Amino acid sequence: MEYTIKDAPFSWKQIRIVAVASLGQLIGTGLATLVSVIIPLYQLISHPQLSSAMQGLVGAMDLIGIMVGSAILGKLSDKYGYLTLFRLCPLIILLSSVVALIFPHISVLIVCLFLMGFGIGGEYSLDSDYISELMPAKWTFTMVGAAKAASALGNIIVALVCFLMVKDWTEATAWPTLLWIMIALSGLMLLTRIRFWQSPTWLISQGRIKEAEMVTKKFLGNDVTIDSPAANSGDKTVASKDGFFTFIGKHWKNVIFTGVPWACEGLGVYGIGVFLPILVMALGLEHAGLHETQIAHVASSVEITLWISCIILPGFVIGLFLIPKMNGAKQQTWGFLLSGLSLLVLLFAYRNNWPHWISIGAFMCFELFLNIGPHLMTYVLPSKVFPVEVRGQGSGIAASIGKLGAVLGVFFIPVLLKSGGSSLVLVVSIVVMLLGALVTYVFAPDHKL
Q1: Which terminus of the chain faces fewer neighbouring Cβ atoms within 10 Å, N or C?
Q2: DSSP 47
């Protein structure tokens, strides 16, 4: 019996596609977690210590790279195809990690973080496209969401490995060895993509129907063919030639709907995430004794970061369960609102010296609701609202705007910490969560998501 892609039975072949494409999400949040550990370690050996602005710059450089890479590589993928860039991205991350390891200077690290982010930015516009076109119809958006859920593994794996390494250190000068984590992950990504093929949907859009049929069978087996409406039309759909601002002008409602909430979510995932160990120490939640070494305090804060990060995966699992049952825009809106409420509880707990378990519990609730809603849905929604001929560019621009919000969050959180302390950081974060909910509610398309 012959199937089309959208009515084919779900099998290990689709699981392999999701696993390979998901590694980009894993390494993206993994790098943010790694930077969150490197910054306080570097602080211990730098003389003078890094200024708040410099801390923000170091924390934001990979996000700036993601912002640039997602916009540039997303558009290039629409023009030249997905496969070459799908292999190039992990190679860029791998080489940049090696250079940063060999030359452990802050200026080299900043440049390499940008290049790593540039490669990850390409991942953000490519992995969801591969998954959305190769899954059976009823599994499409669940599997796109599952790929995003891999970012939770990035947080957990990198936080765990960092803690196991740092807890026995006596000197913070060993921080460059943490870059081996990125080398291993990007190397694994590259190896898994040696036996991978061009996007069938992109080939169809170029009028290359026979090639699309061939790679579909390589991906999914000889009993699966491309979907008949596209295959029979023989029409060549030319990739968009619109520039960045022209594209936004044509698709501004979808850009606002997908990009602005992604920017708000970026503050929570990256702004708070990159400085989570520092915030844990600023809120007085780490448990190292007063007479412990400074590196012991960092290790303690990384341990609490690990426990908070562990709630991210259940959040994604719940969110994936809700995708087929709940309107996507509504899921994102409620996620923002409940994330803001959790931060409000954390603010009260901090200001009123409530027990630490309440603060840590509020932090966990924030991560839970953020990942049930905004962190998951901002990744899923672009592939729902942008048509296939501009999907790479649309997803790339949405990710780029999202990372702009993350960059601003990461850059200004240490500045906010210095000028107004933890309270100001929490107040600003609450306002941003509420803004994300408002924009999602107002700009959600009329059709069902």
Answers
A1: N
A2: S
